[in-house]
Design goal:
By secondary structure, the protein is an alpha+beta fold. It has helices spanning about 5-15, 50-60, 65-70, 80-90, 105-110, 125-135, 145-155, 195-210, 210-215, and strands at about 15-20, 25-30, 40-45, 70-80, 100, 170, 175-180, 225-230, 235-240.
């Protein structure tokens, strides 16, 4: 990528005016970031997209690493203030750092993947969105999705343990599960079979139970996002553009591992 294109990304973000979930004001997405040592900007699709809840879970899990590296975070998602507040309440993501773009304007300006976009003439916009989403869930127009789904069930010895032994996983169709149960599926110290799938089931249950709140407009169900890391001068240090469902990171086993390469 040329330096001109890299500068375009930061320039586009610096000019973006979006609604901030915390106070309901429309303001610059980079408001308060002028003195940031490093700036991590995450572009999310619909806030009800399961990928985004999982990404926010990792941000919370790695919060100490982010703080130790003096990284300021801003996120832009598709939705309205109610969906933003619901998202923050569930994930713990700070409402003061979450901004909303209800028509995916910033996604288009950054040329992020819109997802599969088949248009069947006799279907409505919402129906076409659902059709495309279902096809993407099956791996069509969404490379790597099925492999990542299976990894959630089979486990991954190269990924960290996700659920502590004493943690109780609730809010799924299943009975409450104690973290120590996963030791029976293979041990501890790595991602055990069904461990990630259980967390994803919890996210799915949350969204489907509050669908109208999380997804006020289903026209953007397939829109993918991206991750952009800048230094204090606005120079792009890292970027990842989602190419499909469950593809929000280059390394899904450790989505924030790109931060390990920072000096």
């Amino acid at each position: 990528m040329t330096s001109l294109l890299k500068h375009h990304i930061y320039s586009t973000l610096s000019q973006a005016q979006c609604l901030r979930v915390g106070d309901g004001k429309t303001t610059s997405v980079l408001d308060g970031c002028e003195s940031a040592t490093r700036l991590l900007v995450i572009i999310w699709g619909q806030l009800g997209d399961f990928d985004n809840l999982e990404y926010a879970w990792w941000l919370k899990k790695e919060s100490q690493k982010l703080q130790s590296q003096n990284i300021t975070i801003r996120a832009i998602g598709i939705g309205d203030r109610k969906s933003g507040q619901k998202f923050c309440d569930y994930t713990g993501f700070p409402a003061s750092s979450l901004y909303l773009d209800s028509i995916a304007e910033i996604h288009h300006k950054l040329e992020l993947y819109t997802g599969l976009s088949l248009k069947i003439p006799f279907l409505s916009t919402a129906q076409n969105s659902w059709l495309n989403l279902m096809l993407m869930c099956a791996g069509i127009g969404s490379p790597g999705t099925l492999k990542e789904v299976f990894r959630g069930y089979t486990g991954d010895r190269n990924a960290p343990q996700l659920i502590n032994d004493e943690e109780i996983v609730k809010s799924t169709p299943l009975p409450a599960i104690k973290g120590s149960l996963f030791r029976l599926a293979g041990g501890r110290g790595f991602q055990r079979p069904f461990e990630l799938a259980t967390l994803r089931l919890r996210n799915m249950t949350e969204v489907l139970s509050n669908w109208q709140t999380y997804v006020p407009n289903s026209a953007y169900l397939t829109q993918r996002g991206g991750t952009f890391l800048f230094d204090s001068q606005g120079s792009l240090l890292y970027e990842h553009r989602d190419q499909g469902i469950l593809g929000f990171a280059e390394n899904m086993a450790s989505p924030l591992s790109f931060l390990d390469n920072l000096e």
